[in-house]
């Protein structure tokens, strides 16, 4: 099949999160999908946030932030958190906010999965800051766990596609990672 050149703005599906930080003494949340794992030991996640965002100010102020993963039932509130600035609206009022072990990292009880982290490093880019956080604890609703681990089939994380700007839920399980390719690795199949 022939390949077609695409605009560089095309991106793979990205996890939708609500980034939480204390800003000027109050909890604030913003929608963010430019999120990725960046380290294993210690566990670290990075999120890219525009310099002008109110939440970026809070992360810098406190050296801490949270990532909460909303399910489909929170899509309207999640989208709102990406449309409105915390400078002008109290977005935390939409949620039942709780704290874990890290000061300055407010979390959302309605989200089935939340991570709290301390700021490891902030990398300034032309328009954004890439905040790298060291995960200190994760919090999950008990009903989304299978064998003590979050089960995406149970909490249905949201994904964002761009440039069409649509929210999706995760699809079907197709294979197990670090297992599906073992036959090729051994040279058993071509």
From TrEMBL:
In Swiss-Prot or TrEMBL terms, this protein is called Flavin reductase domain protein FMN-binding
Q: Which residues form the Flavin reductase like domain?
A: 11-157
Native organism: Solidesulfovibrio fructosivorans JJ]
- Highest taxon of source: Bacteria
Cite the entry's keywords alphabetically: Flavoprotein
Any one GO molecular function term: oxidoreductase activity, acting on the CH-NH group of donors, NAD or NADP as acceptor
Q: Which cofactor does it need?
A: FMN
Instruction: Kindly give the SMART domains that the UniProt entry links to this protein.
Output: Flavin_Reduct (SM00903)
Q: Does the keyword Flavoprotein apply?
A: yes
User: Per the similarity annotation, which family is this?
Assistant: Belongs to the flavoredoxin family.
